[in-house]
Queue: 3 jobs
Job 1
Amino acid sequence: MKRGLTSILPVLLFLILAGSLALAPQHARARGKKRAEKAKSEAPKPLTDYEKLFKEKRVTTARGFLTLHMFEGNKLYIELPDSLLGREMLLGTTIEESSDPGEGFAGQQPGVPLHVTFTREDSIICLRRVRSDLLVDGDSLMARAVRRSSIAPLLASFPVKCKAPDGSSVFEATSFFVSGDPTMRPHDPYGINSFGGFLATSVKYVAGSSLLSGVEAFADNVSVLSSLSFTLTTRFGGYLIQQDTPFTAVARRSLMLLPRETMRPRLCDARIGTVPATFTQYSDREQQAREVYYACRWDLQPADPEAFAAGQLSEPARPIVFYVDDTFPAGWYDAIRQGVLSWNAAFEKIGYRNVVQVRPYPKDDPSFDPNDIKFSCIKYACTMGENLSSSTRVDPRSGEILSATICIPHNVATRIRTDLFVQLGAADPEARHVKLSPALFARALAADVARHTGACLGLAVNYAGSQAIPTDSLRSPSFTQRYGISASIMDALPYNFVAQPGDKERGVVLMQERPGVYDEYVVDWLYRP
């Protein structure tokens, strides 16, 4: 028995030793694998192309419906979500600052906003100008032929640099926003220095002296600010007036989303004085293309449709709000407010209350910017100009007025004083003074603002408004007190120059201070549902 155990013991020892030797490489491999996995987990992850773009760079970022990145003040990158491809927008230019107000003043929008959209072709983002002036009925062969001959022209193209974490396309757009593109130029070709376009001014862009200034973004619009430099050469016929005069302007380029659903358009009637949006219509039912005109108007809907239908006054769901500049001289705000609000009486006759509203510039609202094209503003223009100007931003698809601007120049008082002296000097002793009384100036300014507010509501200039009134009626106290001196404040007849000495004392009205009966008719036609 002992001999058997003695003979088996070496065998057992051999088997144990062999097993140990066999397991040793496996444990070594397991330990090596764990060390490799640990080293792998501790190794830094490779940067994505998006992260590489921002690495060790000083970036200013503004996030809104688009995300804008300004790299160290000299490069602009935009993040465009796929959901915005094909969405229609307005691209407008506003002068933020100017070296010469005679060539374009701060707050001015010298050009009509562009109707644009972004598309993508493989790895290229394209900015296209939309052909909004065509109306095509149906999807016939004729309609396809029209579309093939009227594709959206390309304004710019941008290679996609990378993808953002949310899948948005990231591209550089510096060359587009820091450029001298004539359609986006912050220069007024009809400015004071050119005498309203009487002198011809050629503009040359200076790329080396232009740069990015800032970016801003909000829920439905974004802005890119650029400091742009030009040289101006002015001629009168064959005579050189000035050559290579430097001009610099800080331009705000704003991209504003247009509504997904367009307002129901209203066809213009040529017999009624309204501002039209012009279209060319192609239809299978007619054998020729024809011009179609939509009326430009605000999308006014009652907040309480049931009360409105019952004949009760209702406030609008979206009132028309004008924000007034806080830099106007003392006393001007009340006159401006009176002129704008004078239109509410016309709206009340069709069932609306408080349609037009006036507010001062908000002081603590970070979303408000007077140079943002979505806000309607009345701005103080520090220029040598003497006449008010007004402009509207219109949805080119429907004629809907989206916002409006009225600019009041510093020298408007000089023009008002001259007009009052020339036209009312005989009938009104107050108009003969070199320095106008504050009350008379305020009345004249309010009347001027009311006239331009009418233009912002979609009413056209009406030179025939005074034709409806017999000349002798202009000296009638009862007639002028009831109807004013013209059937339309949109007439170029602010003062009653027919009046004679003694007429003012008898009660004859000397100034058209409120909308006339024809203006009330046009408001009814434009805005009654």
Job 2
Amino acid sequence: MAHEPRERWTNRTAFITAAVGSAVGLGNLWRFPAVAFKNGGGAFFIPYFVALISAGIPLMIVEYALGQRYQGGAPKALAAVTSKFRWVGWLALLVGASITFYYVVVMGYAWHYAVASWNVAWSRPAPTYSVDKVDGKPALRQTPPERVRIYLPARSVERKAKLQRMQEQRPAERRLPVLLPEELEGLKAAESGKPERQRLEFVPLDENVGNYFSQVCLGGFRPDFWIKARDYNTGQNAVRNVGKVVMFTVPLPVILLLVVLARGLTLPGAATGLIYYLKPNWELLKDPGVWIAAYGQVFFSLSLGFGILIAYASYMPPESDVTNSAFITSLGNCATSFLAGLAVFSVLGYLAFINGQPVQDVVAAGPNLVFRVYPIALAKMPMGAFGIALLSFLFFMCLITLGIDSAFSIVEGVVAGFRDRFPGIGRATMSAVFCALGFMGSLLFCTRSGLMWLDIVDNWMSNYGLPLVGLMECIAVGYFFHIEELKDYINEHSEIKVHNWFDAFVKVVTPAILIYLLANQFLNDITTPYEGYDKILRHSVTAAGWGWFVVILCGALLLSRRYVAVLGVGGAVAVFAGILAYLIRAAAPGTALGELIAPAAMGAVAVVILFGGLALCIALALKTRHVAGLSPEVTEPAGEPEDGEEGVTR
């Protein structure tokens, strides 16, 4: 069947810009600064740069080389290495698709805050909630916003005077009262004599911002209250268009970050925040966990394992540069992360200053940073109403553009893979189908408990899906491919040559690190209930975490026509679940059996699952091992090859 010729980037700049845009995302803004701060501050950059050179860039070179050489998406490119690894490409696409389901919801939060910036709505009274026990049962009590009074707490007379002077820089209608503890107690005592429905409630600004996020974006979802309540009860043209979009959306967040940084550097306390961010704690370099955190951050931040970079590289001519493009993309992404850290910590330093707290007490990561902590700081800015509204709008527009680039690139990777598999379906139709499925998949994350589901799915996709794909890519290229021929292909056209260091990283260093990451995360998740969500809804972690991961793994095998493997995975999951359930009951914490058996049992389970599964995959691949030719001429087949067929014609 005839199919459309493969689309091309208009130029290398468009490709690099799109690749940087796929790597630069929300994680650069809300994950990197907190990870760096937690793991040694300025000293963290040493393991971070080591991880970038030894794992991040080599694996990006692999993904660029596969996509560019075989002119196809992730499934087609990995099938060209050996047909038994096609499922890895499909897994990469399904992991990425899962992430887009909740990425668009986070962008929805950011859109709401951007619109609400004109009057800084999160600094206005929001409903408050508390859980009381009525007749022996938990009851959620709500105070409407008209009975909420916001204030700034002060711990001393000197602190109160300082806060009042800063309030005087704000418009009169936006100034807040500053209350000492005894003054607050007096106001509460005066209200206690009133009927409950007329009683005023005094709420500090920081808590009010949290209430706003919970009420407006999450529909009243408060994990702490839910857990408390539970405890009561229990226990071509297309690619040209991509290039045009990213040429606008990729530079924009960098420009916006620079604006936020410029304002942040002028705030009192900004220097303290930057010192906390950059001051090296050399002692922490002795901790292996810091080095693991660095590898994890580099791997997740560069969009490795999504299938995005393979798809983007497939739109470049086979003779295009590989290595220098990988270096530019990696360094551009990491430079943006560093810039985001400066912008975030300059503002966090100001927030710590005005709150009279150490910087470490106001540091947060993820949605809590951008939808709770940062809005608090914005609401307390010593600026006029227009200045606060403008800065808030710019910050949330930065979030939106970061999200657009990431979601846009993931969708492109998924569509490229499926178009290789079903070449008779046009791009517009394929995109429409995926967007419709994505809309339905996103509905789960729009519910009141959507943030809980988001956190669970994100943990499993980021900590299991992406590392597993990266590990299998290294094994496929390192052990089932003539890597010397691949290096010759890369070096023939690349501006930066690869040599023996490339072999060492792809075959040994990166796989070893990823195996450790997977094993460590696995042990953590089976010994400690993730974030206590099972107290909110029983089996929620099992369903949204392990359950969803098994579903997309089986989906990847089905798309690769590995039907027997699907049955094997299902049976293995059932057996493993039964054994784990028995061990959890028999080796409960505090029992003698638990103290003796539980650690050994969990370690044994991890070894069997990780290394047993790895050995099985290698054994399957060895049965059909072949080396794909690396001749310059490539003729694309009409569709994706079946298992056992080669991915190119020579």
Job 3
Amino acid sequence: MKNSLSRLIVLIPCCIGVAHGARAQDESQTLSSETYELGVGYVSDDAYRFGRYNGLQDEGPYALGEITARGYRDDGAYWRARGTNLGLDSRYLRLDGGWQGRQEYFIEYDELPNNDSDSARTPFQDVGNANLTLPAGFDIDQNLDTALHSFEIETNRKRLGLGASFITRSPWTLDVSYHRDSREGTGRIGGASGGGGDPGAGLLVNTTATLLPAPVNYETNRVDVTLHYARDQAQLDLAYHMSLFQNDDRALSWQNPFSPANTSSQALAPDNELHRLTLTGGYLLPYRSRVTGVLSVGRMTQNETFEPYAFVPGPGGADLPRDSLDAEVWLTTAQLKLLSRPQRKLRLDAALRYDERNSDTPVDTYEFVGRGPIGTQAIENNPLSYKRYRADLGANYRIRSDMSLRGGYKYDRMSRDYQDEERERTEENTLFAKWKLQPHATVDLALYAEGGRRDGSNYRAPEGENPALRKYYLADRDRTRVGTSLDYLPSDTLSIMADAAYTKDDYRNSDIGLTEATQPSYTLEVSYRPRQDTTTYASFTREDIRSRQAGSEAGTTFPDWKADFEDTVNTYGAGAKITGIRAKWDIGADLVYTDSTGDIDMKNLLPGGGVTPYPDLKTDLTSVKLWTLYHYRKDLALRLTYWYEKYSANNWALDDLQPNSVPGLLLFGEDTQDYDVHAVSASAVFQF
């Protein structure tokens, strides 16, 4: 609270000073508006998830601060100021200024909290550091409970940006901007440690795993420079983009909880760079046609020093084949689009796109030590390169004034180039059509359908993988999608919109893996405005996500189990707004209720085999927002807001799961983030 108030005290006077200072420079200046909102709110309970992105996670008071202001002078000079949530950790502030048509400048700052969990527990000390140690005398079988302590999994992103635009009387314009993003906090990462073996023979077995609190200390610097050219018939943009990512923590080390005398380490997100040049252009052609094109070339690099082998495998030991990955990837994109209306009733469009990822990353052999049978494996890194070709053709024909038909064809081909590729080439062909009808001036009806098939070269399962397994994004697939939409305006005050869609994916040649997926969805929205000062709405959306998987526990080419997954999400919404009550009051309300259920139905296909059913996953969210605005006088209004939110979840993957519930695995023992919170606020709105 003190931190938010101190920042608010600094930000508000600065913005007000900028605004009024600009106005004082020239009495001929015309201000379109200045609005400043100051107030205080109160949260009824601590609720970490409630404040995940808004900063309202702590019980107690908080400050409100909003700014919307702008002004202009007769010579074209202007300024704008906009700020939201200035008293919270989700604050945003932007200042613009300059001379219209000549020079424009901006500076902006915003923060975004991401509160993930406040119920995590770990025995590691110095959470947030890159070197995790256990308390003296730690024994996971004897004193784990006494060594556990709580910590928060959260990050806070801060972004500072500034830029300028220089406009001349010639066709050229230059835009320059710089953004720096910093992210700090604590995240999750899994780590594996060796728990025994024969060091003399270079063998390691009994691997254990631990969830670790990982430090997050990231910084990303981005620079964008764009040169624009515009004439009546031609437009051209040349843009340069640079992104530099830096992680202050190169690696994370930790004592093995299952063998505290041993220390393990692993690399964290590596520093990397991206540089990209993009040329974009457009030109007007005869016959009411326009062609646009994009050509982009980028280079990504990553050369972070490798962590040494935590355990030297192989008889006599082995060294890493190189000091760093020395990764280099070239990205190329080329696109050409044509839009044409050769006849009044006919509209044509076509697009060709080419994407290439060319990885020049060296391929080397690395020693890998795993759980499984005693021994080591030599594996090569597989840098991914691909070429992707896409074509879209479409036509829209207006049959008559109340009817039109659109149809087209899509082609998508991808060729992959990496070691031990499962599938070198995939191709997908899709046909689509949409029929629109307006049987009455108040009714718009649409029916649409789409069908596609993906296949390709022979599938080759990698060594050690079930030969019948097909990865869903590489597998043969038939996709069907149908839907309908209706817009109905029975009167000037009432509108009704309905939509229904059904998508089915059939992985026709997959015996093991994802074999089928369907996704029906339905939406209904109603808006009613009985009077000029009153607006109401109601909505309902239902989405069912269903899929079927097959697997083989024995590793055979035919399934010995199947699983049906069904996720159902229902969302209900309603709201109303009334303005000008007795020429003084505005009131509003927004209500949202969402419930979701995840069901897993397992089937053992072996004779006499049984399964233990999984409990359902359930989530419910209720949100109610009420507000009123009282116009005390022309330049002053008073706002009162009430916000109630309740969230509950049943998640068998978290509930009642203790840190040591799984042998050989140390977890955080987190709980689902249920909450029941009330938040009220009162503020004054000043207008000049």
